[in-house]
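Operator note (shift B, R.M.): manual run for Riboflavin biosynthesis protein RibD requested after the automated queue skipped it. Running by hand, logging everything below so the morning shift can see what happened. Input copied straight from the record, untouched. If output looks odd, do not overwrite the archive copy; leave it for review.
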Amino acid sequence: MSEFSAQDRKFMQRALDLAAKGQYTTTPNPSVGCVLVKNGKMVGEGFHFKAGQPHAERVALAQAGENAKGATAYVTLEPCSHYGRTPPCALGLIEAGVIKVIAAMQDPNPQVAGKGLKMLSDAGIESAVNLLNDRAEKINKGFLKRMRQGMPFVQLKLAMSLDGRTAMASGESKWITGPDARSDVQKMRAKSSALLSTSATVLADDPSLNVRWDEFPENLKTEYKKEDLRQPVRVILDSQHRIQPTHKLFLTHSPVWLVSNKSRDLTGFPDFCEQIILPKENLLKELMRELGKRQINTIWVETGANLAGSLIDAKLVDELIIYVAPKLLGDNARGLCQLPNLTQLADAPLWQLNELEQIGDDIKLTYTPKGI
Ligand SMILES: NC(=O)c1ccc[n+]([C@@H]2O[C@H](COP(=O)([O-])OP(=O)(O)OC[C@H]3O[C@@H](n4cnc5c(N)ncnc54)[C@H](OP(=O)(O)O)[C@@H]3O)[C@@H](O)[C@H]2O)c1
Ligand SMILES: [Zn+2]
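Run finished. Output pasted below as returned.
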């Protein structure tokens, strides 16, 4: 029998709903929610909004005031135990007189990992962990992957026709999917720490690779404010130094990191543009390690068939997101991804369908790699 009651589940659901509100803003921090309950009634709640601002527990404790004494805290991630920009939340809970703490999951951050819960038990506070763990993992998949593997969570986005084509033979590709799917892409970009693309795609399409409030889904506009949205870092593979300061990328003031194996003179580029120099060998994997070091939690990839294939081949894709438009483009149109090393059906990479959603006239499919 579970050690958790239906009431525990209800309050943790609420804490998780609160945590989800932070997912557009907290990077590089995790999204965390907290609910304080006393005598079956909620006396305080809160979520972490942005790095440098109070953690969820602190927000909930401030709201509860004196009522925190004797309360149970439901937290979506183990309370922190280290002095960062703010003092440890475990200590805050102890000082406020909370008597029990239930965490949805342990924090894999080596600075915390079990130490927060230990701090609580050392102070005589009852604690329990692993309630609605699956949902808690989902909310912070980027932060958790970076903490566990030192690399960001990679989401590869592709938009295609019913027959798996992404552009006409001429390269014409605007637009395969409808406005609602493109609006969904804006939402996905806004949740990401960084976007990844290539000079080939920038030269072909001259994209801005930014988050545009005007194109944000209407239902989210009531929940978030324009000034809350962050512009993700743009990471562009450009070994041949083909990106120029005149590209539209530079009209948005958020970092652009140009990746190559050799450095170039960046005179004429805005000061938010810098370069990442990496050896050619295993460049994509090395890039992910470097982005992990730079505290990038999630990467949203918008690119052509070449890089899409390379990332799949290198087993670097954590989630494949395909928008399917109800159009047929025919055999002369361009394909979805290049997998030149693949010769036998038995070796075809396999994917597990996790979500299926209709967005306007299009379908959004979300897959994770299967087996291996
Ligand atoms: N349907 C969609 O969702 C979608 C999205 C975006 C773009 N597109 C279309 O895609 C087309 C461009 O596609 P493309 O296939 O020519 O190019 P691409 O996939 O965008 O980029 C190819 C470039 O990626 C880099 N790259 C690939 N594999 C690599 C590896 N293993 N290691 C290091 N770098 C690697 C190289 O960049 P460098 O040599 O420059 O370093 C290579 O030249 C455009 O026409 C665009 O419209 C479609
Ligand atoms: Zn904390």
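Quick read of the result: The longest helix spans residues 6-20. The chain has eleven helices and 16 strands.
Leaving this for review. - R.M.
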